[in-house]
Amino acid sequence: MLILVSMHRLAGKVALVTGAGSGIGEGIARAFVAEGAVVFVGDLDDERGRRVAESLGGSGHYVSLDVREEAQWIAVVDAIVTSAGRLDAVVNNAGITGFEGTVARHDPEHATLADWRAVMATNLDGTFLGCKHAIRSMRAGGEGSIINISSRSGLVGIPAAAAYAASKAAVRNHTKTVALYCAEQGWAIRCN
Fold first, then answer.
1. How far apart are CA 67 and CA 92, in angstroms?
2. 94 in Cβ contact with 42 (< 8 Å)
3. Which of 43, 164, 168, 189 is catalytic?
4. What is the band of 142 on the pLDDT scale with cuts at 50, 70, 90?
5. How far apart are CA 36 and CA 14, in angstroms?
6. Active site includes 164?
7. 24-34 pLDDT, tens per residue?
C-alpha cells in the first residue's frame, strides 16, 4: 500500500512575515509559500509589499503594517484571524540599521538619541509587539510559532552601529523570555 505524504511542511498554515516587501523578509515569505503556507506580507512600503504579495499568487496577501504601532498590530492580527481563521506563525523580521538615507555616525559616542530611539522602535519595540500579539492570537489554540530575526551583531557588537547591535542583542534575550513564558503557561507556542 502506497501512502502519499505532503512534502509541504507548512501546508495549511497561516503566517505573517513583517518587513516582507524586500530582502530577508521577502525570502522568508517565498520560502513559506513554497512549503505550502498562506503568507500575509507585512510591510511599511505599500508598493513593494503589494508587489511581493501579488507575486506569491493566491497564497500571498498584503497587509500594511508599521511594526512600531500597537494599534496597527492589533488591527492586522485581528484581520488575519478573521479572514484566515487563525494565525500559526509570526516572523518578526522588520528591522533597520539606522543608516537608511543618512550619513550620520552611529558609534557609541556620536549617535544621537533620536537615531538610537528610531532603531530601537523598529527592531526591539516591533519585535515586542509582534510577540505580544502573536501570543494573544495563538493562545486560544495553545500552539504556534514566533520567529524573531536577530543578527550576529547581537552577539559581538558593532562599533559603528551601536543601536543596531544593542537592539539585536535585546531581541535575542526577549526571544528566550517569550519562549520561557509560553512554556510556563503550558502552551506549545515556540519562540525562536
1. 9
2. yes
3. 164
4. confident
5. 9
6. yes
7. 999 999 999 99
